[in-house]
UniProtKB/TrEMBL annotation:
InterPro entries: Clp_N_dom_sf, Clp_R_N. It comes from Streptomyces uncialis. PROSITE patterns: CLP_R. This is Peptidase. Residues 2-186 form the Clp R domain. Gene3D superfamilies: Clp, N-terminal domain (1.10.1780.10). The keyword Cell cycle does not apply.
Length: 186
């Protein structure tokens, strides 16, 4: 699949690896792909993010991703679902941090002498693999031969989770993104 990626899409994957390694993460998560998409300049994804005004809100995106990481990677929708069962995620996070220190749940995904993948690299988490697979499906569905960074961005918005939630909070929703990229919502 990787051979079908454009130069920009490959750069997103490589930059996501870099984000994960700098964060000390065991795996490359969807949040690392999202940060790598925000790093791009002069690509279709960067154009779309700029057209929707999200490029100016990177700091806010990073804070939102940090908040989700602090909650152990749970989205607000996950937290609300748990609240339906009487579980207050914020209270739980506070209790865990009181006993184990600030960011205790966030550091659960960090490497603690953890195993690395081939060539000493961190591995891709299932959700980031799903994003990359969805990007291929999106490209094929549009009868496009190559997978661009904009397909990766579309894939993030097409799956439930923290990435789509953070993007939506910053004005990047699937239909708006398709309008910017293709002039219409498909």
């Amino acid at each position: 699949m990787f051979e079908r990626f454009t130069k920009d899409a490959r750069a997103v994957v490589v930059d996501a690896l870099g984000h994960a390694e700098r964060a000390g993460a065991r795996t490359v998560g969807e949040e690392h792909l999202l940060l790598a998409l925000f790093d791009r300049e002069g690509s279709r994804a960067s154009f779309a993010l700029a057209a929707l005004g999200a490029d100016r809100r990177r700091d806010s995106v990073e804070r939102a991703l940090d908040d989700a990481r602090r909650r152990g990677g749970l989205s607000r929708a996950d937290s609300e679902a748990l609240a339906g069962f009487g579980i207050d995620v914020d209270e739980l996070v506070t209790r865990v941090e009181d006993g184990h220190g600030a960011g205790a749940l966030a550091s659960a995904g960090r490497r603690a002498g953890g195993r690395r993948g081939w060539f000493g690299r961190v591995l891709f988490a299932p959700e980031s693999k799903d994003v990359l697979t969805r990007s291929l499906r999106i490209a094929l569905g549009r009868r496009e031969r190559e997978i661009g960074d904009h397909h990766v961005l579309l894939a993030v918005t097409s799956r439930p989770g923290v990435g789509a939630e953070v993007l939506a909070d910053h004005g990047v929703e699937r239909l708006a993104l398709e309008r910017v990229l293709y002039g219409t919502a498909a």
